[in-house]
């Protein structure tokens, strides 16, 4: 039996591509999602990362069947669009519940096993976890949170030989665009309406023209096979990745001015 990996978000997009790629390389893959989709090459598991019991039960089932775990890929996630002023706290909390706490639940449940096997943790972050995305503030917040968490966690688990890698895709062609939810503005004239529509419309068009999810899966596959996995890996078109370097190098005001066009504001 090959090494065992749990991939969340495996019913679609990036998670599915990761499950396919790892299974084709001999990994024993358990692909988790609420739909519980499976494939010829890997086993599906119904798991809602928003719920403590669901993650605990899912990981217990994996341990019972496979005797342990060598890696996790935390890919489950969705997007929330809309002006900050119009986003309810309930929607904002839900966004962090899946994108941040969903990964936290998975990692917390898997760590006792991963520590025994010098395991690997891959967190699917986003370039939106490095650059604030206008009208997707809570999506960005969820991924910025993941970035800080992953960076801190890496120090804690290194003594056990466990690695943590943040994979940061730019625009990827998946169901993510169609699944994005919108904050509901109050009735009446919407002072943000035109700007929000422009920014989110540009994001949707950029995603439709983005790289295929197999590119992210190839990066995840490299990370899981590397002797010394990197802390961070960006995936996507060169012009998107240049934005990250520009933020690091330019005075922030200059960066902000330059970034406006590509962010649609
Ligand atoms: N697409 C992009 O441009 C892009 C860019 C950067 C980062 N990302 C990140 O990549 C990850 C995957 O996104 P994607 O593009 O592959 O989107 P996708 O095609 O919409 O797939 C999302 C996956 O997450 C699962 N999911 C959502 N909520 C869940 C929950 N509560 N519990 C368990 N599974 C859940 C969905 O399965 P079920 O509905 O069956 O539960 C589905 O398998 C996300 O974290 C996203 O933020 C995407």
| Shape designation | globular
Q: Helical segment tally?
A: 9
Q: Show unreliable segments.
A: none
**Average pLDDT metric:** 96
Order of helices and strands: EHEEHEEHEHEHEHHEHH
Number of domains: 1
Strand content: 5-15%
Q: Which cofactor or ligand species appear?
A: NADP nicotinamide-adenine-dinucleotide phosphate
Identify the CATH architecture: 3-Layer(aba) Sandwich
Offer a quick outline of the entry.
The chain is α/β, with parallel strands linked by helices and 265 residues long.
Question: How is the topology of this model organized?
Answer:
Blueprint: E1 4-8, H1 13-24, E2 28-33, E3 43-46, H2 52-66, E4 71-74, E5 80-81, H3 89-116, E6 120-124, H4 137-157, E7 163-169, H5 176-179, E8 181-182, H6 193-208, H7 213-225, E9 232-235, H8 238-249, H9 252-263
Parallel strand pairs: 1-2, 1-4, 2-3, 4-6, 5-8, 6-7, 7-9
Helix pairs in contact: 1-7, 2-3, 3-4, 8-9
The structure holds NADP nicotinamide-adenine-dinucleotide phosphate.
């Amino acid at each position: 039996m090959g090494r065992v990996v749990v991939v969340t978000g495996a019913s679609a997009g990036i998670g599915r591509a990761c499950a396919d790629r790892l299974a084709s390389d001999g990994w024993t893959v358990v692909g988790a999602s609420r739909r519980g989709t499976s494939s010829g090459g890997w086993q599906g598991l119904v798991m809602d990362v928003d719920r403590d019991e669901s993650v605990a039960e899912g990981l217990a089932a994996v341990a019972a069947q496979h005797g342990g775990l060598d890696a996790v890929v935390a890919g489950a996630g969705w997007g929330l669009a809309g002006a900050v002023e119009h986003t309810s706290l309930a929607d904002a909390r839900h966004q962090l519940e899946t994108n941040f706490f969903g990964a936290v639940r998975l990692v917390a449940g898997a760590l006792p096993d991963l520590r025994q096997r010098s395991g690997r943790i891959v967190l699917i972050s986003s370039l939106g976890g490095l650059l604030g995305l206008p009208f997707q503030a809570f999506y960005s917040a969820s991924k910025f949170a993941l970035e800080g968490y992953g960076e801190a966690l890496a120090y804690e688990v290194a003594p056990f030989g466990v690695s943590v890698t943040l994979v940061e895709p730019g625009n990827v062609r998946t169901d993510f665009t169609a699944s994005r939810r919108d904050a509901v503005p109050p009735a009446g004239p919407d002072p943000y309406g035109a700007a929000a529509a422009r920014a989110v419309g540009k994001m949707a068009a950029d995603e439709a023209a983005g790289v295929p999810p197999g590119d992210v899966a190839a990066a995840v596959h490299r990370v899981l096979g590397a002797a010394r996995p990197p802390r961070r890996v960006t995936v996507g078109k060169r012009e998107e990745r240049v934005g990250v370097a520009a933020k690091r190098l330019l005075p922030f005001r200059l960066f902000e001015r330059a970034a406006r066009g590509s962010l649609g504001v």
